[in-house]
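Please, structure for the following, as tokens.
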Amino acid sequence: MAGNHAQALALAARIYEIPAYIVMPTISTPSKIAATKGYGAEVIFSGSTSQEREAVVEEMIKKTGATLVPPYDHPNIVLGQGTMGLEFQSQVADMIAANPSIGIHTNAEAEHDGVNGVNGHSRKRSELDAVITPCGGGGMLSGNAIAFLDTDTLVFGAEPSFEGADDARRGLAANSRIETVKTLTIADGLRTPVGRIPWSIISDKEKVEGIYSVSEEQIKKAMRLVIERMKVFVEPSAVVGLAVCLYNEEFRRLVEEKAGEEGWNMGVVLSGGNTTLEAVSKLFEVSEDNAERAEGVLGRDGERVAENVAG
């Protein structure tokens, strides 16, 4: 495990004065390793594939007698992840109630109930027409799918496509879970196959509408937008859902077909900021002239002029 789950588990263990042994791939980013150790956990390293990690986990359980708290493949983890979906619904409802202009639906539409749902049961009207989350092991996506199950909100997943990282999308197409993934996508938090329990939810069309993938360059473009325009510090894995909304033409056509001219209230989960300035700088390396132009050192005409410019 790495990232959010590793750090949350390490912090919980410290609070309750329980020793924590966190198995992380050797390729994990230094910031994730440092943060996990900073919360007091002992970090044990493994290979990068799920099989290699699981082998080290089994060894540590035998050695320490510790209880495994998996990052995604357990019902309690799925339900815990699903609480973000409940919070999402509540917060969006409060935001739109306070400022109706930020939503696209009329009050009459928002008050409508009885939307036909699973097995003919009615689903309650949600302020969100759709939600999209990143998908790695599938805990977050399946948890949100459960959280929105009794609403009319459509749930989508997003993956990187690099080196076969889109195992969930490909698994849905083949109607079979893909058990092995080995990729070096920049979205390092999603370098894992979907777990068995999340797959049982994700593969149910009544719960997850579909999964879409994006390229490394599209992920970087979405990341740049969030950092520069929203002023939010995110890792590549966090923005795959936004990248799908912006750049995946198949998904955009689907929205046009289902939503029509009005469009959707779209919920996009930004799932983490486990990266460093050094890593971000490496992703967006540019020539010296372009860097100076971006920094406001080099003028449009190529000249360097010191000016007293306010703000």
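The longest strand covers residues 154-160. Residues 296 and 311 are 12 Å apart (CA to CA).
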